[in-house]
Amino acid sequence: MKKSVIALVLVLAALVAVTLFAACDVTYTYYFEPNYDGAEQITVTVQLGEEITPPEVERAGYHLEGWYTDSECTIPYNPLGTVLNGQRFYAKWAALPTEIIAEFDGEVFVGDVIRKEDITVTVLYFDGTSATVTDFEANVDVTDSAGTKNVSVKYTEKGVTLTTTAVVVVKQPALSRITAEYVGEPVLVGGTFNVDDLVVTAYYENGHSTRVENFSYNSFSSDSAGAQVLEISYTESGVTKECSVTIMVVDESAVASGSLSIHFLELGNKYTGDSVYVKAGDTDILIDAGSRKDSASTIADYIDDYCTDGVLEYVIVTHAHQDHIAGFVGSSSDTGIFERYECENIIEFARTNATTQIYEDYCEARNAEIAAGANCYTALDCVNNTNGAQKVYDVSGDGSITMEILYQDFYEKDTSNENDYSVCVLITQGQNHYLFTGDLEGEGEESLVANNPDLPEVVLYKGGHHGSYTAAGEVLMAKIKPQYVCICTCAGTVEYTQNMQNTFPAQAFIDRVAPYTDKVYVTSLMHVKYNESTGRYTNDYVESMNGNIVFSCEDGVISLQCSNNDLKLKDTQWFKENRVCPEAWK
């Protein structure tokens, strides 16, 4: 019995061994189809459990993208998936790029930047197909001069890198106009100017501009004092353009001397207003103190860096609007200008229709300053030299800088327009003149010109009424021909209007100033938002545009510096998005 059991066990063990041996010898066969004409099927045999390794195949002009389980090559082979014995796999091929063609489709001028989107790159493939691509590289820095240029183009796909060139004809833009600016000091009688102080700028039809040097000009005479007009001519590619520039010839005694700086202030809030601080030698002058009561500390913090003795020798109050007088008053948390400083001479508007609380508060603060010893005169007192006032003040103490109160009809004549009551001030430094007109508008400006036939051309004009469409009228501009315009305002504010063309500085204001100067600067910028439910814009937040603007003339040398940036208005993003550029500024 035991022997039979042992025999049975041995038989079973032998059967198991044979079975296991047979299992280890199991093979699977797979068929790989290269999948193109003339290619032979490849058979791959693996043992049970062995990983399938697809064969390496090549096809001239093609790149193997992978193996697929269907002849249409839509289902990729997954090595982790279930693979059946005898399964077929199909190669999927992509034609390799063999050539690229690049063509330039745009128009380009000297100094332009070639845009990639103006270059069309077509890829030709081995199978005869083609495609337009955008992920190429191109050397677009070829517009430094006119002529036929080659732009190098490089394209890489499936490990193949191809290069070519696109032919670009770089054109010389047509000369459209020139401008000239004299940046030197006034020329003394009998002297001459430095040609390097003539800045001649050429403007082209494509909008580009560049400073040029090979210009010509007519003879210049400095035999006598006065404005000498220099005619400038410049020729390029057979096109000649001309312009003129005025150079002042002065007697030595008339050269601007001494130190003068004029500061156009930001006011610490989102409301438009005026406040201009003038430092003439050791004399401190403040023209207006807007825009709200809380502006007082902002104004004081600024001028304290210059006015170190706490004395304002002259305070000019142009008219009775809040945005010009509130800072004089101050509040419980912001001590007003009248209380902060010893104000020796107050010169204010001669007439007003104001009945507002802020005006009453102003009168109270002013009267307190008078009680403390200040002299107070109206503009009419000044122009008439009455009641101790003077029409012209020697603000430098040596005659080199004067301040004149200019007459206009509305010092004596009633008007419903409070702005036309504005006090008008002309500061003179040698042959340089600087004009401040408060918020004077059309009738007031015309009256100013009519009553001051000798009103000179000015180096600087404080942009009237914050750059309103109602100010800087043609009559005044033609008379004063300003070289610089500085505006105290929040550009784009909808505080007073929903007409976006009339927000400060208005399009009409810009258009009237543009023929005389492009040196226009603005203190602040208002960001606005549109309410779709009401259909109205509202002010959102304010930031600096130029910031505090400081115009200086020291011993005849003019400079302008701003706390935020020195961009001209025409070069700001706000202007480009919200205003039409006048022809004179193009």
Automatic annotation (TrEMBL):
Highest taxon, organism lineage: Bacteria
Q: Name one GO cellular component term.
A: cell envelope
Q: Which residues form the Metallo-beta-lactamase domain?
A: 272-490
* Compartmental location: Cell envelope
Coiled coil residues, start to end: none
What range does the record give for the signal peptide?
A: 1-22
Ordered alphabetically, the record's keywords are: Signal
Q: What is this protein called?
A: Bacterial Ig-like domain-containing protein
